């Protein structure tokens, strides 16, 4: 949460300087050369420096021309960019930036190169944003980032799908502008395409599993094996596989062997990150996480339901079988009561600390010292933290009030 609070603080304090507000979004009040010096990327101002590059991504993410016939399209692109970003965790950004800083030669960590790394990180963030917007539409989500989901804005609705296409393609346009002279430009293009493809597989697997459960109402549709497979594709590649490889190409390194021992650790990071998000969906404080979850009513394959199935009695399994995936409040409360009786929050805590022990051992096997240190840092910043979940009673009260 410390990192997230830093990002939120830097975001809110940096808005007036970089025209990220709706009233001034088309006027950039600073130049790229004056935003930040390279030393700032090595201390607590990393988030602020990265956020400060966002207006330039938006500016270059779409074709801006004198042809007034496309002005409405440009304005709409600006609208979706400034409505959705960048106040969120920025996971993929910091994975990429941290990797780049440890892989690049010290003499090449110039202001210009660090800013390019930031732009590359924004490419992955905007692709991630597009996936989140699609998920919100399919899951009928109401709130994200402490405000209405983008598609729930007046006169947006399903037309938000056209905006997701622009977000996807903006990443390739920015890549062309900033990296076409990089010897690994082809690899960067292919990697971003692969990231979208693999994440789409995970998204499709998630949707298909959900549809299968709604059709059959069979809890056996869910399993740890199925869940892990979805998490590795839907969450793992875009957060923990694509960004490190992109950082390697940016540093003009083509040695994938240095990521060999990192791969298994990445998969565990991904599964935990998805499990964490699942717990936030049900027990996360809206004031902290900015989202109202609906995984229970939607009948999603989540870490919570799979864990509950694993520990449930025969009677509890029957209750879950009957009530999971139902939209009525009574059924949802019954599911939450089963979660409470099983004490899924304690199970999540047990999982987290067991995972930390496993990762500590796995990370020692990574021979490249900088990668090893980066993994330890990730555990410290994202896993070994004090989760501020609501208790069972608080969550039930909030759900009842929201109906």
From TrEMBL:
Its cofactor is Mg(2+). One of its GO terms (cellular component) is cytoplasm. GO terms for molecular function: (2E,6E)-farnesyl diphosphate synthase activity; dimethylallyltranstransferase activity; metal ion binding. The keyword Metal-binding applies. InterPro entries: FPS1-like, Isoprenoid_synthase_dom_sf, Polyprenyl_synt. Pathway: Pheromone biosynthesis. It holds the Pfam family polyprenyl_synt. Keywords: Magnesium, Metal-binding, Transferase. One of its GO terms (biological process) is farnesyl diphosphate biosynthetic process. PANTHER family: FARNESYL PYROPHOSPHATE SYNTHASE, FARNESYL-PYROPHOSPHATE SYNTHETASE. Belongs to the FPP/GGPP synthase family. This is Uncharacterized protein. The lineage of its organism: Eukaryota, Metazoa, Ecdysozoa, Arthropoda, Hexapoda.
């Amino acid at each position: 949460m410390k990192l997230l609070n830093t990002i939120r603080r830097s975001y809110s304090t940096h808005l007036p300087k970089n025209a990220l507000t709706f009233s001034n979004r088309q006027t950039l009040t600073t130049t790229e050369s004056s935003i930040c010096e390279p030393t700032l990327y090595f201390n607590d101002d990393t988030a602020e420096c990265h956020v400060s590059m966002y207006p330039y991504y938006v500016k270059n993410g779409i074709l801006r021309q004198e042809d007034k016939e496309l002005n409405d399209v440009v304005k709409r692109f600006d609208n979706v960019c400034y409505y959705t970003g960048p106040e969120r965790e920025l996971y993929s950004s910091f994975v990429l930036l941290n990797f780049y800083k440890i892989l690049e030669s010290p003499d090449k960590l110039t202001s210009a190169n660090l800013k390019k790394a930031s732009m590359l990180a924004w490419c992955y963030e905007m692709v991630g944003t597009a996936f989140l917007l699609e998920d919100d539409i399919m899951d009928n989500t109401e709130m994200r980032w402490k405000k209405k989901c983008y598609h729930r804005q007046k006169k947006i609705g399903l037309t938000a799908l056209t905006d997701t296409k622009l977000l996807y393609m903006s990443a390739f346009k920015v890549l062309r502008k900033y990296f076409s002279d990089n010897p690994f430009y082809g690899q960067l293009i292919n990697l971003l395409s692969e990231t979208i493809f693999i994440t789409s597989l995970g998204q499709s697997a998630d949707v298909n599993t959900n549809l299968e459960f709604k059709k059959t109402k069979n809890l056996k549709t869910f399993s740890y094996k199925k869940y892990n497979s979805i998490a590795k594709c839907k969450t793992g590649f875009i957060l923990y596989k694509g960004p490190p490889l992109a950082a390697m190409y940016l540093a003009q390194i083509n040695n994938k062997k240095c990521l060999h021992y990192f791969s298994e650790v990445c998969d565990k990071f991904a599964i935990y990150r998805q499990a964490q998000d699942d717990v936030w969906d049900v027990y996360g404080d809206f004031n902290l996480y900015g989202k109202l979850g609906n995984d229970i009513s939607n009948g999603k394959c989540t870490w919570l339901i799979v864990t509950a199935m694993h520990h449930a009695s025969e009677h509890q399994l029957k209750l879950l079988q009957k009530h999971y995936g139902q939209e009525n409040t009574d059924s949802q409360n019954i599911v939450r009561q089963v979660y409470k009786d099983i004490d899924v929050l304690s199970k999540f805590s047990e999982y987290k600390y067991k995972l930390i022990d496993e990762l500590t051992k796995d990370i020692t096997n990574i021979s490249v010292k900088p990668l090893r240190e980066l993994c330890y840092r990730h555990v410290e910043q994202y896993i070994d933290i004090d989760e501020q979940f609501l208790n069972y009673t608080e969550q039930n009260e909030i759900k009842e009030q929201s109906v």
